[in-house]
Amino acid sequence: MNTIATARSAPMLLDSFIELPARERARALLDAGTFRELLGPFDKIESPWLPLQGVVCQADDGCVIARGTIDGEPAVVAAIESAFQGGSIGEVSGSKIAAALTMALRDCERGKIVRPVVLFETGGVRLQEANLGLAVIAEIQAAIVALRRHVPVVGVIAGMVGCFGGMSLAAALCSYLVVTKQGRLGMNGPEVIEQEAGIEELDSSDRRRVWQLIGGEQRAATALADQLVDDATDAVRSAVHAAFKLGLPAAHRSEQVDMFLERLARIDPASVTPETMRDVYNPSSAQHNARKEQA
Amino acid sequence: MSDTSLSRGARWFHALAGEPSSKAPVWSSDASLGGETARFIAVVPDPDNRFARATDNVVGLEQGWQLARAVREAIALDETSGTRRPIVAIVDVKSQAYGYREEMLGIHLACAAAVDAYATARDAGHPVIALIVGPAMSGAFLAHGYQANRIVALDAPGTMVHAMGKEAAARVTRRTVEALDALGETIVPMSYSMTSFAKLGLLDQLIENVDADAPDAAQIERVRQVLVGQIRSAREGQRDLSHRLESAAARKNRAASIEVRRRLAEQWDAV
């Protein structure tokens, strides 16, 4: 029995953050014992549009909103469940995120800071709810921009679905982005690019190439994400805590217009590769690597 | 106005704002509107764009960042004064740019920068109006128009709002284009028509009887008057997007959005 207990407590699969469903991810990021779900499955607010198209609903519409504390401070976590409709954003799931962020904004405006975390795991708009999915994503984006004037908005892209479509813009608006190697971040998924632009543009079955372009490691190496962590619950939790400790950035990434236009101007579209891009997008890290090579 | 080589967005830019003060792919200029100065912004085709996947009226890397720059210029111009010039986004965008370079170089961030700029302008008190004169598609519309205080559209063939192009949506949902159209008749958010978009409470005004490709002077003047009216309305209203949930149409077809917000607010603080 002792042997079994030891084996179970070993940090193996049990410790994986990716393998956790959305509810457990939210619970894991909040301080122990503080998790309280809002609009949970028993509230049964389901998509009004899926049944009309013969799709079975889920009682939480694939999105978990939880309040609690992070490092003792009031917090709210919005976690998207990839197991329901690929984490796609419908009217209800998206409105839950927008509403949670709007409530956090209201509290912040009243001087009561609430730490917001969004766990992105989504292909973007739920096509069965098309225009309403797009509309609520615009509302989520508006809420992030307003909220991050008061408190850092922290995004996590753990994988395995990744973060795509309009929600990739929402992720890019976050103050800090935590990613794992398994988390991909892009506006158009590889399949979409292959469909729209042809296989000579991108072969979506070439997994290695796709990871090199939009995988978490590359996103962190090019400073389009802030922290690369292992797929371990403790590591994700520490990174989220650390992000809040940093406080508000001097300027958000999406505000640095001149810097990014200047970087783009230095890119030669004909020759740029994921490797050479790193030198332009993350010069400090590139110098660091050069020094390492010299040493 | 009859130059058919110009995109609709470009033609409407000329009609409302005259000559652009910036080059393609993003045109912007300040021009008089209803007795004040307004900033007009449009994404136009750029056949010579160095990013080969972004030569059409689509939102790619340069488009996203240049939109952000055009909006932020207007914010900066008014920062120390009491005025907040209106910003009119002339929307004629087919899609975001689809390419591997775009993904690698962060098109998601470029589009987010545009979202950020428009939202920041709106929050700072600039009335932001989206004037839809052509397609307003998906991520491109998020970047250019969807953060507006007010959204108006020409009631004309070719204006539409949607999350995905029709052909692609048909492929992905394994339906024919005809079946997709039929579905849009019963399921409002699936429809591509502007009247359905209006039913969601997202459209503030549908401007009828305007030739979208070759408007005459009277039609252009009517569009101007619509913009002036919407600017006034935006100034009287909230700076956030709550207006979108307030119409009778929204109460009917976005009942779930309203319900989610109401009940989440009730549960926000523990009892």
Description:
Chain B: Pfam families: MdcE (PF06833). Chain B: This is Biotin-independent malonate decarboxylase subunit gamma. Chain B: Keywords: Lyase. Chain B: InterPro entries: ClpP/crotonase-like_dom_sf, Malonate_gamma. Chain B: GO terms for molecular function: lyase activity. Chain A: Keywords: Lyase, Membrane, Transferase, Transmembrane, Transmembrane helix. The complex is a heterodimer of chains A (295) and B (271). Chain A has 295 residues and is an alpha/beta fold. Chain A folds into 2 domains: 13-250, Alpha-Beta Complex (2-enoyl-CoA Hydratase, Chain A, domain 1); 256-295, no CATH class. Helices cover 43% and strands 13% of the residues of chain A. Chain A has helices at residues 2-9, 22-29, 91-109, 130-147, 166-173, 190-197, 207-214, 216-221, 233-246, 257-266, 274-281, 283-294, and strands spanning 36-38, 63-70, 73-80, 115-120, 154-157, 176-180, 227-229. Chain A has a 7-stranded mixed sheet, sandwiched between helices. The longest helix of chain A has 19 residues, at 91-109. Chain A is globular and about 55 Å long. Chain A starts with a helix and ends with a helix. Chain B is an alpha/beta fold. Chain B has 2 domains: 8-239, 2-enoyl-CoA Hydratase, Chain A, domain 1, CATH 3.90.226.10; 241-271, no CATH class. Chain B has 11 helices and 7 strands. In chain B, strands 1, 2, 3, 4, 5, 6 and 7 form a 7-stranded mixed sheet that branches. In chain B, helix 2 links the parallel strand 2 (36-43) and strand 3 (87-93). In chain B, helix 2 packs parallel to helix 4. The termini of chain B are far apart.
Distance between the termini of chain B: 63 Å
If helices are DSSP runs of H or I spanning 4 or more residues, what is the number of helices of chain A?
12
Helical amount of chain B? 40-55%
Radius of gyration of chain B: 19 Å
Tally of domains of chain B = 2
CATH architecture identity of the largest domain in chain B: Alpha-Beta Complex
Q: Remind me, CATH topology of the largest domain in chain A?
A: 2-enoyl-CoA Hydratase, Chain A, domain 1
Total number of strands of chain A: 7
Regions of chain A with pLDDT < 50 over 5+ consecutive residues? 1-11
Would you tell me which CATH topology of the largest domain in chain B applies?
2-enoyl-CoA Hydratase, Chain A, domain 1
Estimate the strand proportion of chain A: 5-15%
Structural class determined from secondary elements of chain A: alpha/beta
* Strand and helix order of chain A: HHEEEHEHEHEHHHEHHHH
CATH class of the largest domain in chain B: Alpha Beta
GO biological process, one term (chain B): carbohydrate metabolic process
Pfam families (chain B): MdcE
EC number (chain B): 4.1.1.88
GO molecular function, one term (chain B): lyase activity
